[in-house]
Amino acid sequence: MVTRFHPTTGLTGLDGVLHGVRPGDNIVWQVESLDKYRALVEPYAAAARAERMRLIYFRFADHPPLLAEVETYHPDPAEGFDAFVDRVHSVIEAAGRETLYVFDCLSHLADAWQSDRMMGNFFRLTCPRLFDLNTVTYFGVFRNRHAPAAIGVITDTTQFLIDVFQCRDKLYLRPIKVQHRSTAVMNLIHAWETGDCFRPVRDSGTVSEILANSQWPGLEDNAIVGHWQRQFSAAKAVAARRAGSPDPAEEEWFVRLSRLLFPVDPSMARLIDEYLRLDDLLTARTRMIGSGTIGGKALGMLLARAVLRRDAPQLEARLEAHDSFYIGAEVFDTFMVHNGLWWIRRRQRAPETYLQEVDAARARVLAGRFSPTVKRQFEGMLEYFGEWPFIVRSSSRLEDRYGNAFAGQYDSVFCANRGPWEKRLESLLDAVRRVYASTMSEQALRYRERRGLLGENEQMAVLIMRVSGTAGGPYFHPHAAGVGLSVNPYRWNPHIDVKAGVIRLVAGLGTRAVDRTDDDYTRLVALNAPELRPETSFGDIARHAQRRMDAIDLDADRVVSGPFAEMVSEQADFPLDLFTTREEAGKPAFLTFDRLLRETPFVADLRDMLATLHAAYRHPVEIEFALNVLPEGGYRINLLQCRPVQMRNVDGGASVTPRFERPAPIEAQGAVIGPSRELHPDRLVYVVPDGYGAMSLGARHDVARLIGRINQASGQHTLLVLGPGRWGTRDPWLGLPVNFNDINRVAALCEIVAMNRNLVPDVSLGTHFLNELIEADMLYFALFPDREGNRLDEAFLLAQPNRLAEILPGQGYLADAVRVIDVPAGTVQLLADAESQRVAIYLDGG
Predict the structure, then answer these.
(1) Does residue 700 surpass a pLDDT of 80?
(2) CATH number belonging to domain 227-466
(3) Is the confidence at residue 690, as pLDDT, over 80?
(4) Are the beta carbons of 278 and 254 closer than 8 angstroms?
(5) Residue 540 pLDDT more than 70?
(6) Is-same-fold flag (12-201; 227-466)?
């Protein structure tokens, strides 16, 4: 007599993945073929016999029997839905509690009743009763066979829905739903290896490659066949009859569909036509939510990968497979209309009213609702990702085009994607709303106004990308990430070839590579000479090494920053040997990336990648990337973004050849970004280091906003600004927390290393702030008062009349910290030499 009920799958490794089978569990196996279902049923039944548990088999399909010599019942679906339900439930009620069940493949019911929905209805009636009776039941259903609505009913009702599929001769299990037992390992894809071994697949590159080749059906809603779907279906039929030779019809469909998917932009049309294929467009459609263009950022990512596929296949082989999703721009338009935002958005295109309703617009967007159809597609995307983290990124119509990068203007939102289904779905919807709201922010509107784009119809598509990294711990991040420029605007050593490009490399998430946030540093790598560093001694290298790392805290569902050493201390697979260096044994290790740069092909790969993309674009480009080192050696690069970047004098030559014939009252040497030039500023804004350093936190924010007002009031003046610490930081203790809008009329910006002697200006190539300086052709330089070759005649600056109160009445209380000095035209000469990294400012016109 059975006195205990301890159910099992019969596969110890699978029990471990599921954290045990519990009374009440209904387990639905979504399979490609019956043999996959049988492979799971047989050990389950064998374990039941060994433990002398009662097992009932419902045999109703026309496929071969799954089990023999077991208690079997034969309800007949041909008798009709009602009779079939009655027969099954009468057996269940008679058997009572703590019984094990196996059902034939449910897909046979859909065939018998000619209705996917009725199959789902049967499951909806049966599963809860089995749960109440503390049974354990196996169901099978064929994958990619049934309408999303029917599978949705099964997903909502069951405790487990597990996708079983084959990819490249290996069998994989992918949990789609795991109720009440969500853990990091359980929700990973697992490779079913020899015997009873289920190995979790932890790295993003392998996961995306497996799913990209898993015959996932896509997000197309089969119940809705509209204009878009008819066109793509017709093009798919043309592609299916491909005979190997060029087909004019296929070319016609490529042109037609590319104009639907991508923003109209003649400068990008050449790249689209040259590098993309019809299959690329058809694949993109299967991963689309809604319709409309997929925007500039998504196009840039697809183009970059297509360029490497054709022009550098050896580099494409290094890339992680991408399995991104796209929210079409028409979803944004529909959201605006149905949430009462359309006319606000129209008024934001008029110069006289564009900033009037910013706060009201944001509040309304964040409270907005999506249509049921769009929500169903969001749910399909969540099922695909499982509980893997993803990032929701802007991909607007105007982004990443020639001339307008929009770097950092719109939001990107990380989603940890953990916990109950309802919470995960709401977090996704909130993230999309935040991206939508950022199109109506003051920062974005001022950028468009400044670039002459205010009147343009700016539509927001959205790109949703799997976060690159390795699963298994409380923090999620790639091993490293960064940004790369195909032309290096910072030549800190004469051996640097500006045409070889430069990268800014960080451990962890790339957020630390694109934001200028705190008192930390990154690794700047000239790709023709990676051993060259702006620092000269190991002591300098150690002081200016990255100490903090960004990662997604999976429990807190947010991006966090923490000490690098602590965050990787429990990550056995983190490549510390490749990334860190010690001055000598026993001393602390510092993040230098030396062995990665010296002993792997990483630098050569990035140099070739940037050169290939530059050649295809016929223009300097910027990329964002992530890097993961593989357990067996080697690495994968995830190419996340590519855009043309505006850069004057891209060949690396000087616009002028400055001649420094005598000492200057103001000189700087050591960090100059931008080509050589000669300027004649007639307004100098000097933020006095001592005055600013004595201020409170609130007063420092007041100074930053004051700089913005001076900037706006300066009209046609040629403006030079000088001030302490980092400009563009978010931490006012470290510098001036200005936005680019506060300095967008400035001709030259000088950071004075005077607030914190240990805080060296981080030459933040690749950050959104520095990118805007480069895009605006603004000269950047740093001045080190205590170093040879640097000089600051503060006495002269303090002796000049301060025009602050005259220009901006009521702001005189800040005159001790901010001085506005106007000089006659031609009396100040600024010479900047990018070759020697030197700037001289003559106060008498030279």
Answers:
(1) yes
(2) 3.30.1490.20
(3) yes
(4) yes
(5) no
(6) no
